[in-house]
Specification:
With 275 residues, the chain is of the alpha+beta class. It has a single domain, classed as Coproporphyrinogen III oxidase, aerobic (oxygen-dependent coproporphyrinogen oxidase), CATH 3.40.1500. Helices cover 42% and strands 27% of the residues. The chain has eight helices and nine strands. The protein has a seven-stranded antiparallel β-sheet with strand order 1-2-3-4-5-6-9. The protein has a two-stranded antiparallel ribbon with strand order 7-8. Helix 1 runs parallel beside helix 5 and helix 3 packs antiparallel against helix 5. The N and C termini lie far apart (54 Å).
Length: 275
């Protein structure tokens, strides 16, 4: 398959998924609030692509949610080339993806994160994943979340779930706190062996994410919460911010490759606290 066709298929899917997820969010909010949409360009002087990030703040369900799509291209800075597969041979790159971060009003509904991407240098690969960060412990929710992920992964390869769950646990770890950010999920990168199979898996990850966040929210939307639980949520958000600013590869990648700063930092919670 021609490389440009692969790029178009991937970026078109990410854009389609962005729109579908935004539609789901508006339905959950009963269309009483609208997204603020912002388009951006990587370069002001030449064509290097760009993207669109959509944000809702202060909804009935979502305290803040960002849904970001990007398609960018250009050259990696020299100091960054050695860290990206294939970029040491040729600094040119192309990248497209979608990222979603949800911070909820109700502390019983966990923060939810999802992203998938397709990157090309002299090599091309998919990456992504999803994870959940609860403020209030819910064992049954944790079991169902991982059972759903396992079922999705098993449709493609029986080895995926164990491998990608472990990768997620290791990735979303705060060494200075000696703790994992949430209850995990799946994380994968450098999927490049078979475009059609890998792309099918990436699409399934996106659809499964839609199923998961709708299910979690609908089950807890009317659950009452206390001020103490809200304070716990604020502290947990502090951990979330620490990870994204100190360790997250996507944040670093975006900032170091000329991405839109506001879109990249949309993952940060609207209010966080530290003891």
């Amino acid at each position: 398959m021609d490389l440009n066709i692969k790029k178009d298929l991937a970026s078109n899917w990410f854009k389609l998924l962005q729109n579908a997820i935004c539609d789901d969010i508006l339905k959950l909010e009963k269309n009483k609030i609208k997204f603020i949409s912002n388009t951006w360009k990587r370069s002001k002087s030449k064509d290097e692509g760009g993207g669109e990030y959509k944000i809702i703040k202060d909804g009935n369900i979502f305290e803040k949610v960002g849904v970001n799509f990007s398609k960018v291209y250009g050259k990696f800075p020299k100091q960054f080339q050695k860290n990206i597969p294939g970029a040491n041979r040729d600094p040119r790159f192309w990248a497209s993806g979608i990222s979603v971060v949800m911070h909820m009003q109700n502390p019983h509904i966990p923060a939810i994160h999802f992203n998938t991407r397709f990157i090309c240098t002299t090599q091309c690969w998919f990456g992504g994943g999803m994870d959940v960060t609860p403020s209030v412990k819910d064992t049954q929710e944790r079991i169902k979340f991982h059972r759903t992920l396992r079922s999705m992964c098993d449709r493609h390869n029986k080895k995926y779930y164990k491998k990608y769950k472990k990768w997620c646990d290791e990735y979303f770890y705060l060494p200075h706190r000696n703790e994992i950010r949430g209850i995990g999920g799946i994380f994968f990168d450098y999927k490049k062996n078979d475009f059609e199979k890998d792309f099918k898996f990436v699409r399934d990850v996106g659809v499964t994410f839609q199923i998961i966040f709708n299910d979690i929210i609908e089950k807890k939307i009317k659950k009452k919460w206390t001020l103490k639980e809200k304070e716990t949520q604020y502290i947990k958000r502090g951990r979330y911010a620490e990870f994204n600013l100190l360790y997250d590869r996507g944040t670093k990648f975006g900032l170091q490759t000329g991405g839109n700063v506001e879109g990249i930092l949309m993952s940060l919670p609207p209010i966080a606290k530290w003891k």
